[in-house]
Amino acid sequence: MIKQKIDKNANNINNEVDLLWNEFKLKPEILFKAKVLESSVYLTRRCNLKCQYCKIVKTELPDELSMDRWIEAMDVFESLGVRFVNIAGGEPTILKELPRLISHITKKTTMAHSLVSNSLFGETMLRGLVEAGLQAYVASIDVDDTAGSKEDDIIKAGAGIRMLEKLRAQNVPYLCANIVISAKNLANVVRVTETLSNKGIWVNLCPVIWGRGDKWEEVEEADNDYRLTRKHTDRLQKIAEELIALKKSGALILPTEQYLQDLPVYGTNLSWKCFSETTPSAPTRLIVDADGALLTCINMRGKVTDKYSIFDLKKEGLYEQFSTDWYDDAKSCKGCYWSTMVTAKERNNMLQVFKKEVLKGHEAKR
Ligand code: SF4
Fold it and tell me: Is the minimum distance from the CB of 209 to ligand 1 under 6 angstroms?
């Protein structure tokens, strides 16, 4: 009975080609006790690049977790019922022991995982990751709007594309490209998405989230040339329609149709919220900083950060306390439209529906 309900839910999502959900290993006993489905970690805040827009590397932490502690953190995720961990940074591949972590996730946990990297690593790391069982690799792809360019020329991310090709040759199951839609690349987003999809690469799309991060209040600091504003609504509408048509025809596009449909609105006003403004709601993703502290949001070290580390969540009842404090932090946020957070929320909503249905079933049997 429970299994049927999960399958029913899973199928609803499958219709929308939700790649992640398919890898979640939906066992009723895990789902029922799951506090949260997804997690993301900044393995390190250090990086071998210094990109102008990156806020992560601008905050240095006095102590970062050792690889042994990260491995322990993965076991805490597993005990909380987490189904997916995204490993990001900074640049995770600057840590030589990264393959040991991937191997632990693959062999000692039931979680799916992905690795986000700038692709500037050598053959030893590549071999290590493949041997460890790397499941999904995400490369950032910059898209340029230069008029008259050929398709491959408008994908200005040589290292990312080359690494995706190398990993394909090594049979890494999921290859993904992340595209940030900005005022600079509107003309080429759809073409690049189609080109990548034709190469067998999954595409995640997200509007540029200007000025939101450690300094949410300083929206005006963002570069005007990149921002999406109301004047871009019509173009975004057309892009959304074309992307939806591509997705319907089988293109490898990660965000759901609903996400794409709402792109013209939320992509310009960034007012989507991961929390309910009327009733306390739980964290969308569990996000852990390089020092093991829990974050309020992708790059916001809020009040919860001073109070909780991932290891505190081993204690019975602490997750609920963390959730309450998290909600107090989150309420001050004006919103965003990060695709990973939007889809994580959709999946968490499904988890809550599933739990309610199971509980209703128990009540009915009494
Ligand atoms: S709405 Fe939620 S996910 Fe978006 S920036 Fe605010 S806290 Fe983060």
Answer: no
Task: Give the closest residue to 310 by CA, choosing from 330, 284, 327, 290.
Answer: 290
Predicted confidence (pLDDT) per residue in 15-27, tens digit: 444 556 666 666 7
Evaluate: CB of 216 within 6 angstroms of ligand 1.
no
Which atom of ligand 1 is least distant from the CA of 297?
A: 8
Tell me how many domains the chain contains: 1
Q: Is the CB of 333 under 6 A from ligand 1?
A: yes
pLDDT confidence of residue 294:
97
- The Cα-based distances of 7 to 3, 26, 175, 349, 354 in angstroms read 6, 8, 26, 16, 11
Asked if residues 203 and 253 have their Cβ atoms less than 8 Å apart, the reply is yes
State which residues of the chain have pLDDT below 50. 1-17, 213-220
Dist. CA 210 → ligand 1 center (Å): 13
Our answer on whether the CB atom of 212 is closer than 6 Å to any ligand 1 atom is yes
The CATH number given to whatever domain includes residue 22 is 3.20.20.70
What local confidence, expressed as pLDDT, does residue 58 receive? 75
